Amino acid sequence: MPHSFNRRDFIRSAALTGAALTITDSIKAFSSAKKDKVRIGIIGAGFRSHEHMGNFLQRDDVSITAIADPQQRSVDEALKVFAAYKRPEPAIYKNGDYDYRNLLKRDDVDAVVICSPWEWHSIQAIDAMNAGKIVGAEVCGAVKLQECWEVVNTSEKTKIPVMMLENVCYRRDVMAVLNMVRKGMFGELLHGQGGYEHDLRGVLFNDGKTAYNSGVDFGKNAYSEAQWRTEHNLKRNGELYPTHGLGPVAVMMDINRGNRMTKLSSIATKAKGLQKYIAEHPKGGANHPNAKLNF
Ligand SMILES: NC(=O)c1ccc[n+]([C@@H]2O[C@H](COP(=O)([O-])OP(=O)(O)OC[C@H]3O[C@@H](n4cnc5c(N)ncnc54)[C@H](O)[C@@H]3O)[C@@H](O)[C@H]2O)c1
Question: Which H, E and C letters describe 97-113, residue by residue?
Answer without folding.
Answer: CCCHHHHCCCCCCCEEE
